[in-house]
Specification:
The chain has 13 helices and 9 strands. With 289 residues, it is of the alpha/beta class. A 5-stranded parallel β-sheet has the order 2-5-8-1-9, with helices on both faces. A two-stranded antiparallel sheet has the order 3-4. Strands 6-7 form a two-stranded antiparallel sheet. Helix 10 runs parallel beside helix 12.
Length: 289
C-alpha cells in the first residue's frame, strides 16, 4: 500500500487557521482519519475540498444519511440484477464478481492514486455505523464473502470525517481519529473569509451587514443560527439588490436568506418591537386642560 508524503498549507479559496492546518497534516502523517466537528456552516465539508484541491487529488464524497449502512461504503451485491439476468439468460450469472459494485470507501481503496475521502455528517447514521467502520479504517482492507476476495487499499486515502454533533460517537471510534473542532469565526476571521468570496465588497456595506449578522446570531432562543455560507449569500443579495449600507441594520432586507425558521423570524420581530418601545418617550401623567 502506497502512502504519499503530502503537506497541506491551505488553498486560495479556503481560510485555514494554524491549528486546523496542523491537525490536517498530523492526520496525514499518522495515516489516521481526521474527525472535524463544528456547527453547520463552519466550513467542514469545504475543508475536504480545499485539501483535495491543494494537494492535487481526487475528492470522493460519501454523504451519510440516517439509513446509511457501513456495508454500502464498501460494496453492494446487486442480487436483483443477477436474478433479472438469470431469468433472461443473457449473462453468465455464475460470475458473481460482475454484480459487486464498489461503494465510496471501496472506490477510495481501489484508486491507483491517493485520494481524499470525505465521510460527511457521520452523526446522521445509527450508533453502530462508526463501529462498523473501525476494522476497515484501521486495516485499510475489507473482505467480500460472496467472491471470497480481500480488497486492500492501494494507497491510503486521506480520510476526513465531519460531524454536526447531533449524537455522540463511540469512544473506540474517537480513539482512532485525530480530532479538531472548528469554532464559529469571530468578526475579524469572518471578514477574512468574506474577502475570499467578495474581494471587491464595499467596506461600509460589509461592516453594517456583519453587525446585523452577529446581532441575529445572538438573538435569545434562536433555533437555527445563520451560518457563514448564509452570510455570503446574503451579502450577494444585498449587492444585487442595490441595498444602501444605511438601510441594512434598520430594514434587514432579504431576511429569508439568513433566517429559515418561522420561530426565529417571530423572535426577531418581537425583539424589534421591544426595542422600538424602549425608545419611545414616557407618557405625561398630567391631565390635559
Amino acid at each position: 500500500m502506497k502512502t504519499a508524503m503530502n503537506h497541506y498549507r491551505g488553498s486560495s479559496d479556503y481560510i485555514v487557521s494554524d491549528d486546523l492546518r496542523h491537525s490536517v497534516n498530523i492526520a496525514i502523517a499518522l495515516g489516521k482519519p481526521l474527525l472535524i466537528k463544528g456547527e453547520p456552516g463552519t466550513g467542514k465539508t469545504m475543508l475536504a475540498q480545499s485539501i483535495a484541491s491543494a494537494l492535487g487529488m481526487e475528492l470522493i464524497i460519501w454523504n451519510i444519511k440516517s439509513t446509511t449502512k457501513a456495508q454500502e461504503g464498501l460494496y453492494v451485491y446487486d442480487t436483483v440484477q443477477r436474478l433479472y439476468d438469470s431469468q433472461f439468460q443473457d449473462h453468465d450469472v455464475a460470475n458473481i464478481k460482475q454484480y459487486i459494485k464498489s461503494g465510496k470507501l471501496g472506490e477510495a481503496f481501489q484508486s491507483e492514486e491517493q485520494v481524499v475521502l470525505l465521510i460527511d455528517e457521520i452523526d446522521k447514521a445509527d450508533l453502530e455505523f462508526p463501529n462498523d467502520l473501525l476494522w476497515e479504517l484501521d486495516q485499510m482492507s475489507y473482505y467480500i464473502p460472496e467472491t471470497r476476495e480481500t480488497i486492500k487499499a492501494k494507497s491510503r486515502p486521506i480520510v476526513i470525517i465531519t460531524s454536526n454533533a447531533e449524537k455522540e460517537l463511540p469512544d473506540a471510534f474517537l480513539r482512532r481519529c485525530v480530532f479538531h473542532y472548528i469554532a464559529f469565526p469571530n468578526p475579524e476571521e469572518m471578514a477574512e473569509i468574506i474577502k475570499v468570496h467578495h474581494p471587491k465588497l464595499e467596506k461600509r456595506l460589509l461592516e453594517q451587514a456583519m453587525e446585523a449578522f452577529y446581532m441575529l446570531r445572538n438573538l435569545p432562543n434562536i433555533q437555527k443560527k445563520p451560518s457563514t455560507s448564509e452570510l455570503i449569500d446574503w451579502l450577494q443579495a444585498l449587492v444585487v439588490g442595490g441595498i444602501s449600507p444605511n438601510r441594512i441594520k434598520q430594514d434587514l432586507p432579504f431576511l429569508g436568506v439568513l433566517l429559515k425558521k418561522n420561530e426565529d423570524l417571530d423572535n426577531l420581530l418581537l425583539g424589534l418591537q421591544q426595542k422600538t418601545q424602549n425608545r419611545m418617550p414616557p407618557r405625561s401623567n398630567q391631565w390635559s386642560r
